[in-house]
Design a protein that fits this description.
Largest sheet: 3 strands, antiparallel
Number of strands: 3
Strand content: under 5%
Helix content: 55-70%
Shape: elongated
Radius of gyration: 24 Å
Number of helices: 6
Strand order of the largest sheet: 1-3-2
Distance between the termini: 76 Å
Structural class: mainly alpha
């Protein structure tokens, strides 16, 4: 089976602007796709590590991205798409059997990944909550894709911190590294953050 067809991507009649546009799209698309796939894979590994820490009770505050367990399958589709893009740079097209098999290989992982992403997110959240952690909506943000933030004890979910999260998160990360957390220290920090914030100047 021939890998390439006899048909070129660009011919002598193809306008220069179209040629330049096609090559530039390929140049910009490739690093974006690589970065996207790396980001999904990093989130996948991060979630696996997080679940191990949750199981041992060795983490106090954290983000949850359980959907990455499903979305990791989409990396296969991204790799296939990168593969199909490469011939643009040598002005060749893949043969139809290659394109067909690429679609057969790359299509199902995309579909399965998109379907299983919300399922894996639900399962991860359920597991985390079974371990005694509480989702803090004050820290989870808002909008189309809010971040799920969990605390090991619900008393650490304080409404005032919702506008101080940029100050609180570094402290939370420090407590995770320290391996211990003190509630009185947390309350003192909240008052300190409030004193430093313009949101509470009129109180």
């Amino acid at each position: 089976m021939d890998i390439f067809s006899k048909e070129s991507v660009f011919t002598s009649q193809t306008p220069f602007k179209e040629v330049a546009r096609g090559i530039l799209c390929g140049i910009f698309a490739l690093p974006i796709l690589v970065i996207l796939s790396k980001g999904v894979f990093d989130k996948f590994l991060e979630t696996i590590s997080l679940l191990k820490l949750v199981d041992k009770g060795e983490i106090f505050f954290f983000y949850e991205a359980g959907q990455s367990l499903g979305l990791v399958l989409c990396i296969i589709t991204i790799i296939i798409f990168i593969f199909l893009t490469l011939p643009v740079f040598i002005n060749r097209r893949f043969s139809k059997p290659i394109v067909r098999w690429s679609c057969i290989v790359g299509g199902p992982p995309l579909l399965i990944g998109l379907i299983t992403a919300p399922i894996s997110s639900f399962l991860v959240e359920s597991y985390i909550e079974e371990k005694g952690y509480s989702r803090c909506s004050y820290y989870s943000g808002s909008g189309y894709n809010p971040v799920d933030y969990y605390v090991f004890d619900s008393k650490y979910c304080v409404s005032e911190v919702s506008v101080l999260i940029h100050k609180a998160l570094p402290w939370f990360e420090e407590m995770n590294k320290k391996g211990e957390v003190d509630y009185d220290e947390f309350l003192l920090k909240v008052e300190q953050w409030k004193a430093e914030s313009p949101f509470f100047k009129d109180e």
